[in-house]
UniProtKB/TrEMBL annotation, chain A:
It comes from Anser cygnoides (Swan goose). GO terms for molecular function: clathrin binding. SMART domains: Alpha_adaptinC2 (SM00809), ARM (SM00185), B2-adapt-app_C (SM01020). Its main location: membrane. Pfam families: Adaptin_N (PF01602), Alpha_adaptinC2 (PF02883), B2-adapt-app_C (PF09066). GO terms for cellular component: clathrin adaptor complex; cytoplasmic vesicle; endomembrane system. It is a peripheral membrane protein. This is AP complex subunit beta. Transmembrane segments: none annotated. Residues 598-618 have a biased composition (Low complexity). The keyword rRNA processing does not apply.
Automatic annotation (TrEMBL), chain B:
GO terms for cellular component: clathrin adaptor complex; cytoplasmic vesicle membrane; Golgi apparatus. Coiled coil: none annotated. GO terms for biological process: intracellular protein transport; vesicle-mediated transport. Signal peptide: none annotated. This is Adaptor related protein complex 3 subunit mu 2. The lineage of its organism: Eukaryota, Metazoa, Chordata, Craniata, Vertebrata. It comes from Anser cygnoides. The gene is AP3M2. SUPFAM superfamilies: Second domain of Mu2 adaptin subunit (ap50) of ap2 adaptor, SNARE-like. Belongs to the adaptor complexes medium subunit family.
Length: 949, 418
C-alpha cells in the first residue's frame, strides 16, 4: 500500500469526492482524504477549492492530521486570505498547548502563512513563544521572527522583536543562540546599515561557547557571524582562532569551509613572526585537501575557494600539488578547476611532475579539457622560466599528434611564449609552418600570422605564406584580418623590395573593400605612415613590445581580499563580490580584511577594486580611437599586457604620488591615440570640433536694436543647481562628496562639500578629471587647508577651466573624477549641466544669425518641448540671458512670440535657437540648430532647467 | 536560506517540488534544463547555476537531480551538504532512493522535508530525531496503522532534539549489547604507464554499529594514532581529548553511524597492493591491435585480493575485441566501448591475465589516446595504511558489551594509465 494510489484518481468528480471524504465522520477516512489532497498539491494540481473542508479538519488531536492540514494551509492561504482567517483561532489556541511540540509547530506554521491579516494575530503568540520555557519553542520562534520580517519588516521593528532576538544571543541553550544568530543574519542582509549583529567581546565569547555545543548547521551560522567581527587586537584574534580551529575537523564540509574563512580573515591580524601563525598555516592544509575527497559537487565549491586561498596564501598548499591531479572520471567542471589550481601552484620544484600530467591530459577525450591542458602548458612555460624549454618541446610533441584542436591551441600558446622569451625558440617556427593548412580557428590563424609577420626575416617564404592567407581575406574574421594587415606591413618593412605588391594589395583590401571601421582605420594609418615617413613607420610598427606578464588572470588584489572575506559563500564560487549579483542589493556592505596590527600600512581597500576596474574600462568608450597605438604595436591579441593591472595595483599600494603617476597611466592608458589621430586627419572619429565657418566671436558691446534686455542678470551668474551627492560615503570609506557646478562672471567652478563620515582624520586631498568632451579640468589644486576631522564637512569651490585634453564621452556631459585622500583613491562620475559652458560673448549679430541659420543643414535641426512653463516672453529672455543665452530678435507672429537666440560653448560651438511661446499655453517649442547636433539634447536640458528654476 | 527544492529525473521531469518560503515558479528550472542540455552527461551538469533572480545548486544522486533554489547569499556548501543529507535520509527511510520510491511515499517525503527545514533553516536532520518525529513506513506498520487507526507521526517531542547529546535518544534498551566497528579504507591512486605511482592517497572511515543500553561512554584508542593527522569526526567525539591524548572518547548515537573519516595524504608513502602489467598497442598500418593485461599482488601483507574487477573505456576506433581470460568473465560492449573483466580472486601462484586482439576500424589512423584501466578490488582484514585499533572501553554502564572490529581495504578511484 503506497502513496502512489493518491495519484491515480483523475476522474471528473475528484474534487467532489474528496470533499465528501473530508467531511466524513470517520477519522481514518478524513486523514486519507487529506493525504490525497496533499499528494495532488505536491504535483502541482489545484486543490484550493477544498480550502474550507480541509481547514475544518484542523481541530484535531491527531498530530499527523494536524501537520498535514498545516502543510495545506501554508500552500494555499495566500490565495484564500479570507478563509485563512478561520484558522487563526486554532493557531492561537495551539500556541498555548501544554505540548511544546504543538506550540512550536503552531508558531512555525503561522509564520509561513504569508497573509497580512494573519500576521497581525501572530504577534502576541510569537512574543510569548520567544520567552517560552522550552528551548525548542524559543528556537523555533527565533526563526519565526525572520519569517515575519520578510513579510512585514516594519511590524517586526515596531513590536520590538529585534531586541528580543538580540537577547536570545545570550540564551543558555546553544541551539537557540545559533538560530537567533541565523535569523539576525538574514534580517541584517536586507538592512545592511543597521547594527543588528553588533558584536562585542562578551557576545563573541557566548558565540564561541555555543559553537562547541550546537548542531552542525548552527555552527555554520555562528562561524559566518564570527567572520564579520573585527577583533580589537592580535591577541583577541589569536584567541578566537584557537577556539575555531577544532571546527576544521568537522565532518560537515560547510562547517570546515566557514572555519577556514574565519581563520583566513583573522590570520591577517597576526604577525608573521608568531609561532602560532606558522602552526595555523600548517593546520589549514589537511582540511582543504580532505574536501577534495568528497562528492564532486562539494569538490567544485571547495576548488573555487581553494583557487582564492592559493592566490592569497600560496604557502598553505604549496606541497599539495598531487591532490589536484585530475582523475579521468572526474566531472568536467572539477577537471577544469583542478587544472587552474595546478597552474597556480606550479613552481620550479614541481614543474616536471606537472608537465608530465599536463601532457597526459592533452591526450584525453574531452575537447574543452584538452584545450585547457594545452594552454596550461604554455602558461607553465611563461611562469617558470626554467621549464620553458621543456614546455616548448612538449608542445612540439603535441603538434606532432596532428590532432586538429591540439595543434591550434599549441600554436596560440607558443605565440605567447615567443612574446615572453623573444629570440629563443624561433627554431620551432619551421614545425609550426608545416601545420598552416590545418588551422581553421580564428585565434589560431591570427596567432600563426602574427608569428609569420614577427619573424618574417627568418622565414624564407613568409610572403608566400601570407599571400596564401590573403586570398580569402574577406571571409576571415576581423581578428585575422587585422593581424594579416599588420603582418604584411611588418613583412614589407623588413623586406621592402619583394613585397611591395603584396602590401598594396592588403592596404587596398583593408581600406577600400572593407566595411569594418577598425580595419579601415588601421589600413589608412599604415598607408599614411608608409607614404609619408617610412623610417617613422619602421619605428612604430617594429617597435619593441612590452613583455607579457607572468601570471595571467590573477584576481585583482583588492578584489581578492574582499573575496577572502566571502570564503564559502556564493561570491567565492562566482569570484565576484556579492554586490555584483545579489538581487536588489541595497547597498551591500563591503567587507575588508582586518589590517595587520602594529604595522603602519593602512587597511587595504576592497572598495576601490570595482571602481578601479570601472575607471580602467572607461577610457575605452571610443575603442577605435583609444586603441590606436595598441593596434599599431599590434598588442590586441593574446593575454593581457601587464600594464593596466599593474597600474591599478600601484594605486592601491598607497604610493606617494598617486595622482601623478598611477592614476595618470590608469586613466590614460590610451595616450598616443591623439597624435595618431591627428596624423590620420580626416578619418578621425567626429569630435566636437570647432566649426570653421563660424565667424570670430563677437563682443556683446556691438549694439543691436533688438537687444532687449541689456546686461540684466549677467552679474547674478547662471543658474546653479542644488548640490547632490556624487560619491556616497559607503563607497569611499567614509568620504562623502556632494557638489554642483556654477558659472559666475565667466568662470566655471565646481562647488564641493567634502564630509568625513569615517572615524579617522582625512587629509592630503587631491582631485583629477579624466579627459572629457569639453576639456574641463581643475584650474587650481584642491585646497583643503586643515585635515578633515571625523564628522566634519568642508565647502570648497574649485575653479575649472576648459583647456584640458578632450575626449568625447557618452553621454556628452559625463565627467569622471578621481579624488584622493590619505586613505585611498576614489572614482566617481557625474553629469555637468551644459549651461556652465555657455560663454559671455555668445551673442551673435543679426545678419550673422540669419546667414548661419540658413547655412546649417536642416538635418541638424532638433525640436523639443518645454512643458509647464508659464513665463512671459520677456521674463524668459531675461532669465535665459542670466545664463548667457542671448535673445537676438523677438517677433510676434499670429499671436505667438518667437524668440531668436544664440549661445556659444567654451569650445566655440555656436547653438542657434528659436523659441516659440503661445499665450496661455505653458508648453514652449524650442528648435535648435547647431553644426554639432549631439549637443542639442543637452542644450535643451539646460533650457529646461534654467526656465524652471 | 534554502528557498525551494525540485526533484528532477533523468528525462527532465520535475516530479516533486517543495517550497519553504514563498513558492518559486517551476520555470526557474529552465535554466537548469539548459545547463543539462549543454552537459554531455548527467554527471557533468555544473553544481552551481546562476540565474537572474536566483541561484540553483544541484546534486546528482541515484539518477535524480536534487535542485535547491536560493535567493540570497547562502554558503553553497551548506546547501549541498543539506541536499546530501536529504538523499541519505530518503535512503534511510525507504531503503533505496529512487523516483518510484519517492512517488510511492510522497506524503512521508513531504512531511520529512517539512521537518528538515523551517523557513530554509535546518531544523532536524539527524536521522534518529527524524525517525522519532515521522516513523519510516514499513509494511508491518502500514498494516497496523490501517487496523488501529494510529499514525506514523510521533506525538512526542523528540527527546534528542534538546539534550546535550542530540544525536542519541534516551531510554535505549537492548538485550544483546554489542558494538561493532568497521575500519574501511579506500585507496585512490593514479599509476603511470611504467608502473610508478603518480599519486596515491587513502580515504578511511570508521563506521560503527552500536547497540548499547542506556548512556554508554566509549573510548577507542589506536596503536598508531600518529597516522591520523587529517580527520573529520562525528559531532559526538570529544575533540579536546583527541587533541591532547589521541584517544576517541564519545557517547555514541544509537545504531549505525560514521564515527570518523580520515585521509592519509599523498605525502606519506602509501602501499599499493596490486600491479597491472599491460601491453596495449595499436599499429598504424594494420587494423588489428594487441591487448594484454595481467594483474598481480604487490604489497598485501599476505592477505588475498578478491573482488577484482577491471574496466577500461576503449578508444572509439575499436570495433571489437577477441580476448581470452585465464580466469573470470569478460564483456566488451561494442556500443559504449566499455571493456569489463570480472577477475575475482587473485591467486599469486597463477596470475590472472586477459589476452587477445582488437579489431580496429579500417582506414582510420591509430587512436590518439590509450585507454585508462580502472581497477576495483577488496582486501579483507587489512587496513592498508596500517591503522590498528588498540582497545575499546566502555564507561557509564555496568554491563559487558560484545565488541568487534573489522578491517577492509577497497579500491576507490584506482587508475592505471597505459
Amino acid at each position: 500500500m503506497t502513496d502512489s494510489k493518491y495519484f491515480t484518481t483523475t476522474k471528473k468528480g475528484e474534487i467532489f469526492e474528496l470533499k465528501a471524504e473530508l467531511n466524513s465522520d470517520k477519522k481514518e477516512k478524513k486523514k486519507e482524504a487529506v493525504k490525497k489532497v496533499i499528494a495532488s498539491m505536491t504535483v502541482g494540481k489545484d486543490v484550493s477549492a477544498l480550502f474550507p473542508d480541509v481547514v475544518n479538519c484542523m481541530q484535531t488531536d491527531n498530530l499527523e492530521l494536524k501537520k498535514l492540514v498545516y502543510l495545506y494551509l501554508m500552500n494555499y492561504a495566500k490565495s484564500q486570505p479570507d478563509m485563512a482567517i478561520m484558522a487563526v483561532n486554532t493557531f492561537v489556541k495551539d500556541c498555548e498547548d501544554p505540548n511544546p511540540l504543538i506550540r512550536a509547530l503552531a508558531v512555525r506554521t503561522m509564520g509561513c502563512i504569508r497573509v497580512d491579516k494573519i500576521t497581525e494575530y501572530l504577534c502576541e503568540p510569537l512574543r510569548k513563544c520567544l520567552k517560552d520555557e522550552d528551548p525548542y519553542v524559543r528556537k523555533t520562534a527565533a526563526v519565526c521572527v525572520a519569517k515575519l520580517h520578510d513579510i512585514n519588516a516594519q511590524l517586526v521593528e515596531d513590536q520590538g522583536f529585534l531586541d528580543t532576538l538580540k537577547d536570545l544571543i545570550s540564551d543558555s541553550n546553544p541551539m537557540v543562540v545559533a538560530n537567533a544568530v541565523a535569523a539576525l543574519s538574514e534580517i541584517a542582509e536586507s538592512h545592511p546599515s543597521s547594527n543588528l549583529l553588533d558584536l562585542n567581546p562578551q557576545s563573541i565569547n557566548k558565540l564561541l561557547t555555543a559553537l562547541n555545543e550546537c548542531t552542525e548547521w548552527g555552527q555554520i551560522f555562528i562561524l559566518d557571524c564570527l567572520a564579520n567581527y573585527m577583533p580589537k587586537d592580535d591577541r583577541e584574534a589569536q584567541s578566537i582562532c584557537e577556539r575555531v580551529t577544532p571546527r576544521l575537523s568537522h565532518a560537515n564540509s560547510a562547517v570546515v569551509l566557514s572555519a577556514v574563512k574565519v581563520l583566513m580573515k583573522f590570520m591577517e591580524m597576526l604577525s608573521k613572526d608568531l609561532d602560532y601563525y606558522g602552526t595555523l598555516l600548517k593546520k589549514l592544509a589537511p582540511p582543504l585537501v580532505t574536501l577534495l575527497s568528497a562528492e564532486p559537487e562539494l569538490q567544485y565549491v571547495a576548488l573555487r575557494n581553494i583557487n582564492l586561498i592559493v592566490q592569497k596564501r600560496p604557502e598553505i598548499l604549496k606541497h599539495e600539488m598531487k591532490v589536484f591531479f585530475v582523475k579521468y572520471n572526474d566531472p568536467i567542471y572539477v577537471k577544469l578547476e583542478k587544472l587552474d589550481i595546478m597552474i597556480r601552484l606550479a613552481s620550479q620544484a614541481n614543474i616536471a611532475q606537472v608537465l608530465a600530467e599536463l601532457k597526459e591530459y592533452a591526450t584525453e577525450v574531452d575537447v574543452d579539457f584538452v584545450r585547457k591542458a594545452v594552454r596550461a602548458i604554455g602558461r607553465c612555460a611563461i611562469k617558470v622560466e626554467q621549464s620553458a624549454e621543456r614546455c616548448v618541446s612538449t608542445l612540439l610533441d603535441l603538434i606532432q599528434t596532428k590532432v586538429n584542436y591540439v595543434v591550434q591551441e599549441a600554436i596560440v600558446v607558443i605565440k605567447d611564449i615567443f612574446r615572453k622569451y623573444p629570440n629563443k625558440y624561433e627554431s620551432v617556427i619551421a614545425t609550426l609552418c608545416e601545420n598552416l593548412d590545418s588551422l581553421d580557428e580564428p585565434e589560431a590563424r591570427a596567432a600563426m600570422i602574427w608569428i609569420v609577420g614577427e619573424y618574417a626575416e627568418r622565414i624564407d617564404n613568409a610572403d608566400e605564406l601570407l599571400e596564401s592567407f590573403l586570398e580569402g581575406f574577406h571571409d576571415e574574421s576581423t581578428q585575422v584580418q587585422l593581424q594579416l594587415l599588420t603582418a604584411i606591413v611588418k613583412l614589407f618593412l623588413k623586406k621592402p623590395t619583394e613585397t611591395q605588391e603584396l602590401v598594396q594589395q592588403v592596404l587596398s583590401l583593408a581600406t577600400q573593400d572593407s566595411d569594418n571601421p577598425d580595419l579601415r582605420d588601421r589600413g589608412y594609418i599604415y598607408w599614411r605612415l608608409l607614404s609619408t615617413d617610412p623610417v617613422a613607420a619602421k619605428e612604430v610598427v617594429l617597435a619593441e613590445k612590452p613583455l607579457i606578464s607572468e601570471e595571467t588572470d590573477l584576481i585583482e588584489p583588492t578584489l581578492l581580499d574582499e573575496l577572502i572575506c566571502y570564503i564559502g559563500t556564493l561570491a567565492s564560487v562566482y569570484h565576484k563580490p556579492p554586490s555584483a549579483f545579489v538581487e536588489g542589493s541595497r547597498g551591500v556592505v563591503h567587507k575588508s580584511l582586518p589590517p595587520r596590527t602594529g604595522s603602519s600600512e593602512s587597511a587595504e581597500s576592497p572598495e576601490a577594486a570595482p571602481s578601479a576596474g570601472q575607471a580602467a574600462e572607461q577610457p575605452a568608450v571610443i575603442p577605435a580611437q583609444g586603441d590606436l597605438l595598441g593596434d599599431l604595436l599590434n598588442l590586441d591579441l593574446g593575454p593581457p599586457v601587464s600594464g593596466p593591472p599593474l597600474a591599478a595595483s600601484s594605486v592601491q599600494m598607497g604610493a606617494v604620488d598617486l595622482l601623478g603617476g598611477g592614476l595618470d597611466s590608469l586613466l590614460r592608458s590610451d595616450v598616443g591615440g591623439s597624435p595618431a589621430m591627428g596624423g590620420g586627419g580626416g578619418f578621425a572619429a567626429p569630435g566636437p570640433a570647432v566649426p570653421a565657418s563660424m565667424g570670430a566671436p563677437l563682443g556683446s558691446g556691438l549694439g543691436d536694436l533688438f537687444d532687449l534686455t541689456g546686461g540684466v542678470g549677467t552679474l547674478s551668474g547662471s543658474y546653479v543647481a542644488p548640490k547632490s551627492v556624487w560619491l556616497p560615503a559607503m563607497k569611499a570609506k567614509g568620504l562623502e562628496i556632494s557638489g554642483t557646478f556654477s558659472r559666475q562672471v565667466g568662470s566655471i567652478s565646481m562647488d564641493l562639500v567634502l564630509t568625513n563620515k569615517a572615524l579617522q582624520v582625512m587629509s592630503d586631498f587631491a582631485i583629477q578629471f579624466n579627459r572629457n568632451s569639453f576639456g574641463l579640468a581643475p584650474a587650481a589644486p584642491l585646497q583643503v587647508h586643515a585635515p578633515l576631522a571625523p564628522n566634519q564637512s568642508v565647502e570648497i569651490s574649485l575653479p575649472l577651466n576648459t583647456v584640458g585634453s578632450v575626449m568625447k564621452m557618452d553621454p556628452l556631459n559625463n565627467l569622471q573624477v578621481a579624488v584622493k585622500n590619505n586613505i585611498d583613491v576614489f572614482y566617481f562620475s557625474t553629469l555637468y549641466p551644459l549651461h556652465i559652458l555657455f560663454v559671455e560673448d555668445g551673442k551673435m549679430e543679426r545678419q550673422m544669425f540669419l546667414a548661419t541659420w540658413k547655412d546649417i543643414p536642416n538635418e541638424n535641426e532638433a525640436q523639443f518641448q518645454i512643458k509647464d512653463c508659464s513665463l512671459s516672453a520677456d521674463a524668459v529672455s531675461s532669465k535665459l540671458q542670466g545664463s548667457n543665452i542671448f535673445t537676438i530678435a523677438k517677433r510676434n507672429v499670429e499671436g505667438q512670440d518667437m524668440l531668436y537666440q544664440s549661445l556659444k560653448l567654451t569650445n566655440g560651438i555656436w547653438v542657434l535657437a528659436e523659441l516659440r511661446i503661445q499665450p496661455n499655453n505653458p508648453t514652449f517649442t524650442l528648435s535648435l540648430k547647431c553644426r554639432a547636433p549631439e549637443v542639442s539634447q543637452h542644450v535643451y536640458q539646460a533650457y529646461d532647467t534654467i526656465l524652471k528654476n | 536560506m534554502i528557498h525551494s527544492l525540485f526533484l528532477i529525473n533523468a528525462s527532465g521531469d520535475i516530479f516533486l517540488e517543495k517550497h519553504w518560503k514563498s513558492a518559486v515558479s517551476r520555470s526557474v528550472c529552465d535554466y537548469f534544463f539548459e545547463a543539462q542540455e549543454r552537459a554531455s552527461e548527467a554527471e557533468n551538469v555544473p553544481p552551481v547555476i546562476p540565474t537572474p533572480h536566483h541561484c540553483l545548486l544541484s546534486v546528482y544522486r541515484h539518477k535524480i537531480f536534487f535542485v535547491a533554489v536560493i535567493q540570497s547569499e547562502v554558503p553553497p556548501l551548506f546547501v549541498i551538504e543539506f541536499l546530501h543529507r536529504v538523499v541519505d535520509t530518503f535512503q534511510d527511510y525507504f531503503g533505496v532512493c529512487s523516483e518510484v520510491m519517492i512517488k510511492d511515499n510522497v506524503v512521508v517525503v513531504y512531511e520529512v522535508l517539512e521537518e528538515m527545514l523551517d523557513n530554509g533553516f535546518p531544523l532536524a536532520t539527524e536521522s534518529n530525531i527524524l525517525k522519532e518525529l515521522i516513523k519510516p513506513p514499513t509494511i508491518l506498520r502500514t498494516v497496523v496503522n490501517t487496523i488501529t487507526g494510529s499514525t506514523n507521526v510521533g506525538d512526542q517531542l523528540p527527546t534528542g532534539q534538546l539534550s546535550v547529546v542530540p544525536w542519541r535518544r534516551t531510554g535505549v534498551k537492548y538485550t544483546n549489547n554489542e558494538a561493532y566497528f568497521d575500519v574501511i579504507e579506500e585507496i585512490d591512486a593514479i599509476i603511470d604507464k611504467s608502473g610508478s605511482t603518480i599519486t596515491a592517497e587513502i580515504q578511511g572511515v570508521i563506521d560503527a554499529c552500536v547497540k548499547l543500553t542506556g548512556m554508554p561512554d566509549l573510548t577507542l584508542s589506536f596503536m598508531n594514532p600518529r597516522l591520523l593527522d587529517d580527520v573529520s569526526f562525528h559531532p559526538c567525539v570529544r575533540f579536546k581529548r583527541w587533541e591532547s591524548e589521541r584517544i576517541l572518547s564519545f557517547i555514541p548515537p544509537d545504531g549505525n553511524f560514521r564515527l570518523l573519516s580520515y585521509h592519509v595524504s599523498a605525502q606519506n608513502l602509501v602501499a599499493i597492493p596490486v600491479y597491472v602489467k599491460h601491453n596495449i598497442s595499436f599499429r598504424d598500418s594494420s587494423s588489428l591491435g594487441r591487448f594484454e593485461i595481467t594483474v598481480g599482488p604487490k604489497q598485501t601483507m599476505g592477505k588475498t585480493i578478491e573482488g577484482v574487477m577491471v574496466t577500461s573505456q576503449m578508444p572509439k576506433g575499436v570495433l571489437n575485441m577477441s580476448l581470452t581470460p585465464s580466469q573470470g568473465t569478460h564483456i566488451f560492449d561494442p556500443v559504449t566501448k566499455l571493456l569489463s573483466w570480472d577477475v575475482g580472486k587473485i591467486n599469486p601462484q597463477k596470475l590472472p591475465s586477459l589476452k587477445g586482439s582488437m579489431n580496429l576500424q579500417a582506414g582510420t589512423s591509430k587512436p590518439d589516446e590509450n585507454p585508462t584501466i580502472n581497477l576495483q578490488f577488496k582486501i579483507q582484514q587489512l587496513a592498508i595504511s596500517g591503522l590498528k585499533v588498540n582497545r575499546l572501553d566502555m564507561y557509564g554502564e555496568k554491563y559487558k558489551p560484545f565488541k568487534g572490529i573489522k578491517y577492509m581495504t577497497k579500491a576507490g578511484k584506482f587508475q592505471v594509465r597505459t
